């Protein structure tokens, strides 16, 4: 799409969203949403969506923060909540009844069918961050250390453990290092209170989580070694549903030379698994509400990108199949109302991600 066409499409989307909002003002929807703790793109997206939806008279979204996405996606699937910000891998695992949903088993497929997406983005990349004072400068240095690697259960913990295993050449939680888990709401304290020697957590470029840790002293961001990152095992990992590689030159991480953030990498390039996310809704949510909600979101994308320093780097407006991780082994589809809103705004929704 050319820049001129994109600008025209955006203007049309803005006008369309306002018109939809005006029509819905007399019958504003009351919705519930669940998201993570502050400091990342999923939380930013949900709070922004709630703000603009209320402002334009489309919906009043009661947002529960600090939630574990593993529980939240089930709540949406069971109709207990209307929307959730969640990594796309959770949809795959729920549908298959695997991982954190193993107790659900075969019933997971029926539950997953009740969930559809309205907007994709990412939560940055899994980053191993550590105070310089800890002395940790590599994945191998995690031996015998305490590492915060996620909430007590869920996709973040699974991928956090996997990333440490890959980066270290085989370290296991509870054997080679002591894994430490808390809920998302306690993470800000963990970043500064010394309860963990290192933290494996999704970070953006720049990241509020790195800045929080900086309050205690200089911080190391440790890249997955290049040979491991480009090796066969990790490339197979990236081809699985819900995974994507992230490669960022050090100068693009978003920190100044004198800010006390040190990238540890053999070639000044940060490499780590990415975190494809989507905001998902109940499949049964009516077409007009979802279309109006999505259209209002699209019309406010420029505003959203300005709400955080990393706002322009997490692909809030990218629907590309490879970038978002949709299709292939991931059967997650967009809600019909979302498809209509994106296409009317001039975006291409991959056919494989449209509902049948």
Number of strands: 11
Helix vs. strand class: alpha/beta
Give the overall pLDDT as a whole number.
Answer: 90
Radius of gyration: 20 Å
Overall tally of structural domains: 2
Reported by name, the CATH topology of the largest domain is: D-Maltodextrin-Binding Protein, domain 2
Q: How much of the residues is beta strand, in percent?
A: 15-25%
Number of helical regions: 14
Task: State the assembly state of the protein chains.
Answer: single chain
Q: How much helix is in the residues?
A: 25-40%
Biggest sheet record:
11 strands, mixed
Shape: globular
Q: CATH homologous superfamily of the largest domain, by name?
A: Periplasmic binding protein-like II
Contiguous uncertain segments of 5+ residues: 1-26
Question: Which CATH class of the largest domain is shown?
Answer: Alpha Beta
CATH architecture of the largest domain: 3-Layer(aba) Sandwich
Structural features, described:
With 356 residues, the chain is α/β, with parallel strands linked by helices. It has 2 domains: 198 residues, 3-Layer(aba) Sandwich (D-Maltodextrin-Binding Protein, domain 2); 151 residues, D-Maltodextrin-Binding Protein, domain 2 (3-Layer(aba) Sandwich). It is built from 14 helices and 11 strands. Strands 1, 2, 3, 4, 5, 6, 7, 8, 9, 10 and 11 form an 11-stranded mixed beta sheet that branches. Strand 5, helix 6 and strand 6 form a beta-alpha-beta unit. Helix 11 runs parallel beside helix 14. The two termini are 26 Å apart.
């Amino acid at each position: 799409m050319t820049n001129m066409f994109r600008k025209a499409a955006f203007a049309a989307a803005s006008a369309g969203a306002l018109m939809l909002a005006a029509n819905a003002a007399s019958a504003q929807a009351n919705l519930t949403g669940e998201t993570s703790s502050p400091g990342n793109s999923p939380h930013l997206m949900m709070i922004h969506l709630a703000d603009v939806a209320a402002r334009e008279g489309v919906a009043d979204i009661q947002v529960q923060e600090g939630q574990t996405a593993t529980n939240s996606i089930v709540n949406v699937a069971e109709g207990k909540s209307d929307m959730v910000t969640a990594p796309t891998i959770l949809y795959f695992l729920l549908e298959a009844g695997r991982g954190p949903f193993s107790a659900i088993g075969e019933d997971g497929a029926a539950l997953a069918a009740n969930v559809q997406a309205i907007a994709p983005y990412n939560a940055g990349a899994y980053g191993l961050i550590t105070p310089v004072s800890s002395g940790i400068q590599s994945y191998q240095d995690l031996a015998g250390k305490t590492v915060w690697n996620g909430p007590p259960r869920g996709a973040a913990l699974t991928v956090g453990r996997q990333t440490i295993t890959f980066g270290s050449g085989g370290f296991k939680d509870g054997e080679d290092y002591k894994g430490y888990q808390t809920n998302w709401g306690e993470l800000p304290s963990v970043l500064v209170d010394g309860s963990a020697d290192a933290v494996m957590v999704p970070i953006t470029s720049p990241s509020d989580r790195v800045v929080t840790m900086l309050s205690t002293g200089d911080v190391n961001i440790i890249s997955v070694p290049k040979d491991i990152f480009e090796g066969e095992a990790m490339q197979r990992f990236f081809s699985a549903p819900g995974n994507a590689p992230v490669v960022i030159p050090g100068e693009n991480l978003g920190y100044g030379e004198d800010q006390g953030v040190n990238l540890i990498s053999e070639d000044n390039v940060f490499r780590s698994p990415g975190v494809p996310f989507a905001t998902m809704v109940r499949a049964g949510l009516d077409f007009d509400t979802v279309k109006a909600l999505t259209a209002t979101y699209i019309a406010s994308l420029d505003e959203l990108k300005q709400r955080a320093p990393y706002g322009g780097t997490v692909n809030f407006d990218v629907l590309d199949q490879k970038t978002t991780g949709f299709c292939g082994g991931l059967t997650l589809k967009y809600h019909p109302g979302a498809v209509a809103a994106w296409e009317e705004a001039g975006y291409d929704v991959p056919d494989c991600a449209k509902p049948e």
